[in-house]
Write a structure and sequence with these properties.
heterotrimer; A mainly beta; B alpha/beta; C alpha+beta; B: alpha/beta; 5-stranded parallel sheet; 5 helices; 7 strands; 34% helix; C: alpha+beta; Four Helix Bundle (Hemerythrin (Met), subunit A); 6-stranded mixed sheet; 22 helices; 22 strands; globular
Chain lengths: 157, 153, 660
Amino acid sequence: MNPEAITSPSLHGASTLFVVFRVDDTNYALPAETVLQMESFSGATTVPGTQPFVAGIIQLRGHIVPVIDLRARFGLPPAPSSSESRVVVGQLGDRIVALVADSAREVLRLSSEQIKPPPRVLEQGAGGFVRGVAQVGTRTLFILDFGRVIGEEAFDA
Amino acid sequence: MRNAPVEVTHFDGERVVRSLPIELVAGILVVDDSKVMRDMITACLRSDSSLLVTHAASGLEAIERLSLQRFDVLILDLNMPDIGGLEVVEFVRGQDVLRELPILIVTTRSDDASRKAVLDAGASRFMTKPFTPDVILHEVRLLMTSTGSSGAS
Amino acid sequence: MHVDLAEFRSAYLDEVEEHLNGVDGLLMRLEDGRHRGQPQLRDLRELMRLLHTIKGLSAMVGVEAIVVIAHRMETIVRSTETSGHRMDEAALEALMAGSRAMASRVKALVENRDVPPPPDALLTALNSAMSRECSSAEAAEVEFDAGLGDKLGPSERQQLLEGVARGLRAVRIDFTPSSERARAGWTITTVRDRLGAVAEIVKVVPIGAPRSAAAPGGLVFALVLLTTASDATLAEMVGGSTADVKSLVTTSAPAAAPYAAEEIDVAEMARPGVIRVEIERVDEAIDGLSALTTTRFRLSHAVRRLAQSGVDTRELSLVMADHERQLRDMRAAILRVRMVPLTTVFERLPLLVRSLTKTSKKRARLEIDSGGAEVDKAVAERLFPALVHLIRNAIDHGLESPEERVRAGKPEEGLVRISCETKSRQVEVRIADDGKGIDRARVAARAGRDASDSATLLSLLCAPGLSTRAEADATSGRGMGMDIARRVVVDRLGGELALDSTGPGGTAFVLRIPLTIAIIDSFAVRCGDERFVVPVPLVDEIVELEASMVVCGPCKGDTQTRFFVRHGATVPLVELAKLLRVPTASGGRQALVVRRSREEPLAFAVERVLGQQETVVRPLDDPLVNVSGISGATDLGDGRATLVLDLVTLSARLEQAEAA
């Protein structure tokens, strides 16, 4: 899989390219180099016996990719998927996992100064998965820790 | 208990569960170096659940198993590497305890010379390929009821 | 019970293909040996045996044409072996033609076409090869141990003589089988394999003896060997002592040997660390692993119950996590055993290149650099046809004639190079030729599209219309069979096929293949709106459910148990849709009966069994979706992932859930 239209961030000094997506009116971001691809989402095949936030699996260019429903992962009530729903396919090491967001439209550049550590008050819901916060104009972006979102030991003891 | 599951342990540790008392089960040793052939023969015999089929992939392995375990019928292919069916028959008939063991030879057509040689050496009956399941079942049953009868089918 | 021997067709095809590979390899060795004037007794005997096996198997499955060809070939080899051990060029050519004729008929079977009768020209060639001049071998003056002597035939004695003349030791080593030794892994088969790595085994003679403590089975195997290994090494291979080793030669061999010394390929004879394992044993190990996984599930369930009743299970959970990881590692290790070196696929190619260069009057050299790459056995078996098409293309159409090449400043002999590189989860196989490149303009013109992009050019070449013989001229032949190659690599193996480069200096294709795949015969079933796939080996029988057949049993909690009667026994019936929580309006109308190892069978009701097909199963490796009861996922052609169910484990889970 090839990343879509993403240029190398190193040309621009101490700033990094991020992919921005929305879940329930909140903006989240992931570093572009973590993201392999973004696709529209038309449902996943349910896998019985997985955790509730695992929507299932999809097939992408011959690969089987697990899909995490970010709403469920963040403890939000489910919403019907729309034509705007997107899967953001990310890679960490050997693992490729897709995240379902309500929409994903933007790619933007953030400088390292713009990213601040998350406030301690964010403990529940998405809080555990946020590793930084950035202000862009009037919007607040929550930078996700992809590794925590996809979890390393994600099954019952 | 009469029809309880019974575990039979073979000498190489292979364990098989049958649902018949051990005394009523007949041990069949099928010897052929082709796994497909062994599987086909086993499939043909499977409908009779009083038959317990063991495989050997070579004449040497067959002789080894025969020396360590009791069988009721030996089904033997003639064409095998290292030691062919004829030598196995000769060896088997040379052992006191195996002299009466019924031996069913499997051959291909137009193999008259080796067929005669193997019957002379003491094989009980022979069958030619291709054969159908009822033919081989019939031959095996014949061998189990009348011990030591020789002759062509 | 009805046994249909035609069920064994695909197993027959696999085994016959393997034997045909063996035949080709031996024919190449015989040809090589012929040029050096060497006798190759072992190869002749092995060739004869393979042909005989092919003949017998083909007779059982009813492929008459192959029986006839194999029989004639076998007769030729047999008479060569018993007479002069030397085969003339015409006979070798006839045998190679025979091998090709058998292979093409096997291919016809695979593709469900009619098998043509053997060509008359071939039969004539084989017949005339059966009469040849014999040369008698001069006997040397060597005596052997009397006890063994009458068990050794003339060709074995000849083999021993030749071996001694070459400087090898002729020895006898005894192996006494027993139940105890068999349990420890010492059987005549394993001993023979071990010895085969350090010695040439001339014969294994079983010798009866009275039963004793030393020989509990009343049997001793005397192995007659030619070797350079020491007594100590040999004894080790047999698990015995040097007392079991005896030299066989009682007088010295004459100085003048009738044949020139043959170079022994020592590297070939002693290959450390390589053990041939039957695929079935590996699969048994994988089955054992599934059982372990089921038990682990029950264990974790029990731990959870403990935690719920207030016991501190933290330490237990840590242990369970370790255990899970170890199970995963072990599974990976077992799957690695199924890996075979790609050289096993490549070793058939030189023969192909040889016949292609002869028919096309081109000169070509094949270079193979497998880079030590290994793939799963199932991948290796399926890769070969794709390689054949690409190489045939390269030689028939890519390489220019020798004259053209000289004019273009290239060496007369063309080069086809196959190289492999192993990446993290894939193997990259590159097939490059130094021919004249693909004529983009012609392909583009034919398709009415622009073909300046390599990816587009490749998909145009692979389009079925452009890929036929009729269109070969239009694409200057490069399209031939490309759609088949792509179908094998992409659909059947889940890999990628790419055109790396093409120009006046040559063309290079790249195949990227996953290292492990599983392809299994499966049933596709429908439950509600969803489809699932169940491997055929799990299913004992498919039963049509009539309402009158189904009996309701006592209620267990809030579930109603249902049964039906089969062969005089009651079989519990489970709605698959309910088990998998698939919403469905109607109940199941067909049931898959699944055999379980220690218990009675269980039946799963589905709406309909849709059909049976070979499916590529991709594992659900990621921990998020790696759950017991689901073997993997496949694509039934709709682009969605369809789950492959492990009904045996699912049924175990069901019992656990009910027991809770």
